[in-house]
Amino acid sequence: MAAFVETGTYLRFGPAPRGKKRPVLWPVLVHRVLYPDAKRPQLNLFQRAVLGLIRARTVRDETIAELTGLHQNLIKLILAQGVSNGWLVENAQALTATGDRLLDDEEIDEANLKAGYLLQDALTGQFWPRLVAQLNQLEPRDPLARYPEFLGERKTGETIRPFMIASGISDLPPLDHESLTLAYRDYREDYRANQQLGHGNQLPKQISLQGVQRLDDAPQSARALVWVTADDDGGDLWAVKDPFELRENAWWLQATLRRVIDSDANLLARLEPLVGIARADNQSVEQWLEALRKQTELQVLIEFPWVERQPDIKRHLAALLVRKEKLHQGDSHDQELDAALMECQKLLEVVMQWLIRTYPADVGQLPKQQRPDPKLNQRILSALQIPAFTEDVIRLLARQKIDQVIWACSKPESSLKALTFAAAMGTLNTPQHPLKVLGTRELQLSKLLELADLRNRSSHAQSSFTGREKTQLTSRMALDSIQYALSFTACFKEWM
């Protein structure tokens, strides 16, 4: 068992978020470990499909060709490559251990070990689903001060005065295989989710926690600087930003933060100004949140009664209404504007996901492409004869990679443009498909594509290094985007 003690060690990971936020020092135990250096997955889409079928005991090349739609000669080539690379056994009837790990994105090089750090939450004993390659220490301005202060931006001379959360339980569980497995599972899921959002090029190399070895007998106590903002998703009052920027929020800290707030009036007072809707006198956090939810739910019930039949769409629509209300109240910080655009995109994506699930496409009718072919994609989209698909819309959608569209047809987790292409494929042999009935004036798909591009152009990841001009968001742009997303969703109310 380990215990947290104050050591005067403070850690910082990643930059502070934009807009209104509050710093908090979170107590953690730092475990120094050795981990095997992970390789990038080496499988392309076709190889992954074939190896997956072989692991599922589908081994005849003609059967694999039939299930995947790939030519039998290509299947034979992939099988030969698999044997040659050591992914398949000699007769190509089963995966080797290396092939199994590679299919799970767990291929490792045991000869190359690196040192890293695992963080254990001193409030819950749970391990954070992240592995840190290096520690960045913060030096307080006065090391002897009870409540440390730190220099923020050197240019502005801003001072960071974080709130010190009480350390929590005295006996913390040790690092064991089960807790490591759970942390690694969550880490992999977050990593893949980030890749699906199109942020893969900005990510550090994925780390494998298989074969982790402890370096120290006992962990070291420290405090990690985290930032609390208003909840971007509208489901809660506050959110902890992911200090490692793998996801938008540190979801694993959310429930703990709520418990701490409920028991610490000082922290509540510190975080209260972040919420756009004021708290009534003597109103508890739960009552405050419930009042906010009721206000939003009432608005949904009055203005969008038909959405009750689609809980996923309702959830994102309600979150967008919260964003709209905060903008009307004058909260126009960069972070809030960016969050509004993100919520617009989320709502539009879930509507497209609903279309794909309700009117599934036959992906077998899509031709296989070895490389992107916008001209062919244009012909495919034009042949669908969808009224709202103007020449400009078709031209922009045709740039999507066909394998991403195929993926979106079966697992609608892709970008908004790929989802729109996949939804369009569902119109085949479905004359009453909503996209066949609704016209250009109702859907205004050019605005949908503009919104998707606007979110990318305004992203904080853009810089002078990209060669792209960043778009400065305004309240008017955000409100117009919200109105479009709501109107677009309402177009489908008769089918919902």
Folded structure, characterized:
By secondary structure, this protein is α+β, with helices and mostly antiparallel strands. It has three domains: 10-38 and 109-274, no CATH class; 45-103; 292-490, no CATH class. 43% of the residues lie in helices and 13% in strands. It has 18 helices and eleven strands. The strands form two sheets. Strands 1, 2, 3, 4, 5, 8, 9, 10 and 11 form a nine-stranded mixed sheet that branches. A two-stranded antiparallel ribbon has the order 6-7. α11 crosses α12 and α13 crosses α14.
Tally of contiguous helical segments: 18
Beta-strand percentage range = 5-15%
Backbone structural class: alpha+beta
Q: How many strands appear in the DSSP assignment?
A: 11
Average pLDDT level: 82
Largest sheet properties: 9 strands, mixed
Shape: flat
Please give the share of residues in helix.
40-55%
Q: Give the distance, in angstroms, between the N- and C-terminal Cα atoms.
A: 54 Å
- Mind telling me the C-alpha Rg? 25 Å
Number of domains: 3
Keyphrases for this structure?
496 residues; nine-stranded mixed sheet; 18 helices; 3 domains; alpha+beta
List the helices and strands and how they pair.
Layout: E1 10-12, E2 22-38, H1 45-55, H2 61-68, H3 72-84, H4 97-103, E3 108-121, E4 127-132, E5 137-138, E6 150-151, E7 159-160, E8 163-164, H5 177-196, E9 213-214, E10 220-230, E11 238-240, H6 254-263, H7 265-271, H8 285-303, H9 311-328, H10 334-358, H11 374-383, H12 391-397, H13 402-410, H14 416-425, H15 434-437, H16 440-443, H17 445-457, H18 475-490
Parallel strand pairs: 1-10, 2-8
Antiparallel strand pairs: 1-5, 2-3, 2-9, 2-10, 3-4, 6-7, 10-11
Helix pairs in contact: 1-3, 2-3, 6-7, 8-9, 9-10, 9-18, 10-14, 10-17, 10-18, 11-12, 13-14
